[in-house]
Amino acid sequence: MNVLVCDDDHEIAKAIEIYLRNEGYNVLRAANGAEAVNLCRDHEVHLILMDLMMPVMDGMEATKIIRESKDIPIIMLTAKGEDYDKITGLNIGADDYVTKPFNPLELIARVRAQLRRYTDFGKRDSESGVYRSGGLVIDDVQKTVIVEGNPVAVTPIEYGILKLLTQNAGRVFSMEQIYESVWNEPAFNPENTVAVHIRRIREKIEINPREPRYLKVVWGIGYKIEKI
Amino acid sequence: MDTKLRKFRNTGNRFLFAMCVLSFLGMIAGVVYALLLNSNAWSLYDGNLWYLLTPGEFDTARVQELWTLHGDQLYYIRIEMLIFLGMAIGLALLCLGALIALLVRTTGPDETGMVPIRKADRWWTELQVILLGAAGAAGGIAFLRIFAAAAVQTRWVGLYNPEDHYVYTGEYPVMLLYAAAVLVGLFSAGLGLWLMLSLVRKVRAGQLISRSLFGLILYEPLRKLYHGSGVMRKVILITLAAALVCMTIVGAPVVFGLVLVLGPKYVGKFEAIKEGVRQVNEGNLTHQIPVDPHSSSELDALGREINRIFDSSNKAVQNEIRNQRLKTELISNVSHDLRTPLTSIITYLDLLKSEDLKNERATEYLDVLEKKADRLKQLTDDLFEAAKASSGTMPVDFTTVELGSLIRQTLGEFDRRIQDSRLTFLVTPEDVKYYVRADGQLLYRVMENLVGNALKYAMPGTRVYISISAHATSGPEVGIVMMEMKNISSQPLNIEADELMERFKRGDEARATDGSGLGLAIAKDLLKLQNGRLDIAIDGDLFKVTAAMEAAEPPFIETEDPQQDSPDQDK
Hints:
The structure holds two protein chains of two kinds.
Chain A: E1 2-6, H1 10-22, E2 26-30, H2 33-42, E3 47-51, H3 59-69, E4 74-78, H4 83-91, E5 96-99, H5 104-120, E6 130-133, E7 136-139, E8 144-147, E9 150-152, H6 156-167, H7 175-182, H8 193-205, E10 215-218, E11 222-225
Parallel strand pairs in A: 1-2, 1-3, 3-4, 4-5
Antiparallel strand pairs in A: 6-7, 7-8, 8-9, 10-11
Helix pairs in contact in A: 2-3, 6-8
Chain B: H1 3-45, H2 49-53, H3 61-107, H4 125-152, H5 174-205, H6 213-227, H7 230-247, H8 251-281, H9 298-354, H10 360-391, E1 399-402, H11 403-413, H12 415-421, E2 424-428, E3 435-438, H13 440-457, E4 463-471, E5 480-488, H14 497-500, H15 519-529, E6 533-539, E7 542-550
Parallel strand pairs in B: 2-4
Antiparallel strand pairs in B: 1-3, 4-5, 5-7, 6-7
Helix pairs in contact in B: 1-3, 1-4, 1-5, 3-5, 4-5, 7-8, 8-9, 9-10, 10-15, 11-13, 13-15
């Protein structure tokens, strides 16, 4: 697997390279957007880590150009922390973003998740009793939860919540609805039982529970599993 | 003046007014009775009563004879007359006193030093004077005539000589006449007094002329013209001159022509100014009123002045926009420049940790470095969040949010930390929904900061109370939803409540903990962005946060039955 790391900060690029090599990936490095575009043209690249603010050609511009010819996963590295940048980045074709300063483990986990989705693409089976959203798979036949290929141990209640939300991916459920459906009794006063369970589930299935990918909070309304 | 005092004064004034009118009528009645007695005596005893009453001075044979004949009766009649005259004098004094009191109380200046003008004073002075004359003359004559007619029929005026007393029995019963007299008297005397007070008030306020018909149509306009500006004089004199010229056969067409040429021109200029002001008011800041820069015409000069106001306000707005943009860029760039080296620090610390370190102390130092790097990261995050929240450049996506659910969700997020903290969070009421208009994500950040604050600074083992309540506001707007959060501080709060919300402010003891001192400031700014308000109160060790938010209409309908999707399908 070839991963292209594009960052004008030499030390950061080098550190990322070390982590990726430890994971067994082959790493190419570029110091600006223009170099990244050239490297992409000349080499086979499976994933790009792209910094946004760079001299010569910035990450947005480079992403746009690369997207014209390739559909490989692109993860943005942003230090500005502006929601605006993240949204624009995702809109012009990036697949994910990581905010600097990042936790190295989180970065690696995201790289792995993106690569698995990229290489597994098309292998998606449509057997009954299996619900999925991106790398999250709920196998209702074997009653197992699999995230990015790794089985995750969950309690029956957590399983019930995950199944309900994944079956209806994209739809928002209020805490009362989740309680009534999973506990199977009227929600007189669910307090924060549901919220606590959601938090636990997120710690099990998300790379970074603070910035969930699958199980999202719709504040003041409820929860949903993102339809990916 | 408070209403109670005013009410008291009004009652007092009404009393004085009634007293004045009644004593005035009573005085006239006394005089009429006295005169009547006198004339009765005249007709009875062939002479003026005074003759008879003062025998010493007019000691004629005739008087002597009358005294010996009717001594008793004359004596009583004299007493009666004196009583009536005395009554008349007493009532006259009372009337005068009441009048003076009324004048002082209702026509004098009030607390502001101005003479208060009342409804009655708005009538034209001429009308008031005419009415006053009518009330005085017609009312007076009518009253006297009716009263006299009644008086001559009253038996007790000559009570002591029923047989000889001259009694006229007319066609109207005595009581009816008296009633009519009282009505006419009260009406005309009351009206007269009322008008008089009003006139006096106008004189004292210096508005006698300006509130008269004469003043209205002649005096005031001329005075304004005399004191007025050159433009006013110009416009009026030209118009008058034009009217005069119009009177001549030759002049009329010239004036018509001038009006047709000049009228549209000047009205057009005026309308351009009006339109310009409207445009700028509606937000078209760069609009300029078309004016002739060299013309000395009044409307052009006005237009130029208004254009100058537009220019400066436009400049101020542009400046503000540029400042805002620069601020946002600055925040974003500084954020980038701080985070880039921090990224290297954190990643290389992590790499260093995975190296094989022989020295045990080195691992220990590395732990310290790692902790501090994390703290630095936390501080930068908070700093930029605070900067963004207070610069007002954060986009806000308003939706309807159920506050109770949001609080429960937040507490769910904090579940582990809450369990470790030995704090109990109590949310009331449990079963009522409160919908607010807010940005769910931002409102969560507010709650996150508040709960985090409680977790850091509340006394372990105590309870944290969160209560929600709705308050209706008057007027068409929707109400307010209040959220109150109370906890007991673990350290003495030796700081003012307001200061706690300033950036980087913390209670002295709190410096040792790992907060950034920005939590409450961020919460406050974020709430402000959502049209809400955050207040803090400290009472001893009780720390209380009050958040006010805009209430929202409940969403149309919530999907009732989620079970339908799940249990049925997997069977």
